[in-house]
Write a structure and sequence with these properties.
Pdz3 Domain; alpha+beta; Thrombin, subunit H; 11 helices; six-stranded antiparallel barrel; flat
């Protein structure tokens, strides 16, 4: 979990440890709005759960460990070599993927799912389960994500039309309005909690560019990315964070703001942030320094550096310029200016009002895309397709390539051998200690230079021996069948 505001607020993803996902079969219908023209029925939350739960999904992610060089001793360490001489190669503890749980909800019948960025950020594998009592797990494709708004889009192919949530509006929300939060708290499966909207427009800039909807509907770790729903069955927010030291204080991203992000993420994959290209003095200017610079106020931002070739450089901004307005909006601090620039439209020209040598003036700057966003857009996630081991042994391999070696941090080989790229949790491969990034040298004492060789040499209903290279160390693994 990520801590915010000195540890008092944190996002609500849960590490995947003691709890297992459980799901049930979802209805293949879009979620209808509830009719509230009549007085509210006593079972309103029961009916609400029937409408929304089929659209809610449980998300589990895993981040593969990167196997680098030998950790225990130098390759020529005589003590290590002595141990291996008399006791054989010493196997390390199995390197398992880091796993986490979160929630999402289907927003289109073709399997498009909305969730939080921090649920899927840096994940190598994203798995989705639709409902309780359904063990089917779908591998999701990451469509796009944005850290600043903490929103992400993923998509699954379920080979059928899926129920999807109705997106409402957060514009007319009122304090005291009944709402329900849906999600996968603590990995327990689909859960519904009720409460009211306790505040609107909560600005917590460290967490999100959008002011939050605050609710006392119970939100727990694992609820991240789940829907906050009104009594009409409409999604009015996306569960995002909770106050760690408080009770009944949860935060959701308003759905109207999320709608604007969804369109861009599906089209571009990222939200382009404006980039100015300056280094700012991070603290307020003291009165003495302000007087020396000819400033009448300490509200503003002092430029201490300009990146060559940046929009700031092209516009003529210089060191010791004092920025007081951006796009006619007052700038009182460096965080304010950073937010204004990040939220501004890339490619558009803006006026910046400055004080230079005691005199006010304006410069025009055309913002460019932030270099980090440009890099993220160019670095599409590589998906390696491999050969799945037979007999439900639970691992997938692919042939060694330069790209695979770079991705998994593998040492160069004189002769290529297959690489393990996926391990199924709880499988014979996982229990044996086989790890992602292991290079399989031989199977049942026979050389296996290709992935197809490994598949042919594995045997059914008996123990298989695999000699693998992990870093620079050979390890012998015995894999028992289920």
């Amino acid at each position: 979990m990520r801590n915010f505001l000195l540890g008092t607020i944190f996002s609500v993803t849960i590490g995947f440890a003691a709890f297992q996902l459980s799901t049930h079969e979802a209805s293949a219908q879009s979620s209808p709005k509830m009719n509230l023209s009549d007085p509210l029925p006593a079972n309103v939350f029961i009916e609400l759960a029937k409408v929304i739960n089929p659209t809610v999904v449980n998300i589990s992610t895993s981040t593969n460990p990167r196997i680098r060089t030998r950790r225990y001793g130098h390759p020529q360490d005589p003590f290590q070599n002595m141990i291996e001489q008399f006791m054989g190669p010493q196997q390390r503890g199995p390197l398992r993927p880091q796993q986490a749980l979160g929630t999402g909800f289907i927003i289109r019948a073709d399997g498009l799912i909305l969730t939080n960025n921090h649920v899927v950020e840096d994940a190598d594998v994203i798995k989705v389960q639709l409902s309780e009592n359904d063990n089917t797990s779908y591998t999701a494709e990451l469509i796009g994500r944005d850290k600043r708004t903490d929103l992400a889009l993923i998509k699954i192919d379920a080979k059928k039309k899926l129920p999807f949530a109705t997106l409402g509006s957060s514009q007319s929300l009122q304090v005291g309005e009944w709402v329900a939060a849906f999600g996968n708290p603590l990995g327990l499966g689909h859960t519904t909690s009720k409460g009211i909207i306790s505040a609107i427009g909560r600005e917590i800039d460290e967490l999100n560019r959008f002011p939050f909807v605050q609710t006392d509907a119970s939100i727990n770790p694992g609820n991240s990315g789940g829907p906050l729903v009104n009594l009409k069955g409409e999604v009015i927010g996306v569960n995002s964070a909770i106050a760690a030291n408080g009770q009944g204080i949860g935060f959701a991203i308003p759905i109207d703001e999320a709608k604007t992000v969804i369109k861009v993420l599906e089209k571009e994959g990222v939200i382009k942030r404006g980039f100015l290209g300056i280094n700012m003095y991070p603290y307020p200017i003291n009165p003495q320094a302000a007087q020396e610079m000819g400033l009448t106020s300490t509200n503003g931002v002092l430029v201490v550096g300009v990146t060559p070739g940046s929009p700031a450089h092209k516009s003529g901004l210089k060191e010791y310029d004092f920025i007081i307005k951006f796009n006619k909006q007052d700038v009182d601090s460096s965080p304010t200016l950073s937010r204004l620039i990040s939220d501004a439209e890339v490619g558009r020209t803006y006026d910046i009002e400055i004080i230079r040598s005691g005199k006010k003036s304006k410069v025009k700057v055309t913002l460019e895309e932030h270099p980090d966003d440009k890099q993220q857009a160019n670095l599409k996630k590589k998906v390696y397709r491999g050969q799945k081991a037979p007999y439900d042994l639970g691992f997938t391999i692919t042939n060694y390539t330069k790209d695979i070696a770079e991705e998994y941090g593998l040492a160069p080989l004189k002769r290529p051998y297959p690489v393990v790229i996926d391990i199924e949790d709880g499988s014979p491969a996982a229990k044996s200690g086989l790890g992602i990034g292991d290079i399989i040298v031989d199977v049942n004492r026979k050389d296996s230079p290709k992935d197809t060789d490994v598949l042919k040499l594995l045997k059914n209903k008996q123990i298989n021996s695999l000699r693998v290279l992990r870093g620079q160390q050979p390890i012998l693994i015995y894999m028992n069948p289920k």
